[in-house]
């Protein structure tokens, strides 16, 4: 069992594939994909988010993703592919591992919002 954040990140990165912005774009275009911004609300307000993404801060993710809870967000569907991102990629990796632990199978880490915006600007 991990005993440090470094070990938690290593386990998360091993469990959740990292994808490029191009791969994310293709997945979004093909449909049946949920994009989740796990940054806190002030971060999203300051920089915006990917069009169509839902913002669920990492600290609330399990409460929105678990269909057995009254706080479940219907956007979370285990049949969908889920793409996660944050500011730099750490929180999205940990969030992806959490979703995997909850039974989501098709979970991907886009990394940081800057990875997306940098690719869009090119």
UniProtKB/TrEMBL annotation:
Q: Mind telling me which PROSITE patterns this protein's record contains?
A: RHODANESE_3
Pfam families on file: Rhodanese (PF00581)
Span of domain Rhodanese? 29-121
Q: Which domain of life is it from?
A: Bacteria
| InterPro entries associated with the record | Rhodanese-like_dom, Rhodanese-like_dom_sf
Q: Which PANTHER family match?
A: THIOSULFATE SULFURTRANSFERASE PSPE, THIOSULFATE SULFURTRANSFERASE RDL2, MITOCHONDRIAL-RELATED
Instruction: Provide the protein name.
Output: Rhodanese-related sulfurtransferase
């Amino acid at each position: 069992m991990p005993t440090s954040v470094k070990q938690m990140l290593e386990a998360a990165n091993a469990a959740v594939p990292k994808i490029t912005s191009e791969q994310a774009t293709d997945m979004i275009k093909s449909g049946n994909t949920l994009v989740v911004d796990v940054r806190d609300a002030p971060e999203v307000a300051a920089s915006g988010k990917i069009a169509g993404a839902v913002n669920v801060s990492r600290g609330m993710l399990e409460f929105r993703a678990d269909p057995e809870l009254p706080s479940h967000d219907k956007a979370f569907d285990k049949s969908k592919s889920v793409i996660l991102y944050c500011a730099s990629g750490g929180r999205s990796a940990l969030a992806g591992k959490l979703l995997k632990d909850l039974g989501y199978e098709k979970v991907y880490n886009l990394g940081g919002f800057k990875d997306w915006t940098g690719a869009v600007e090119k």
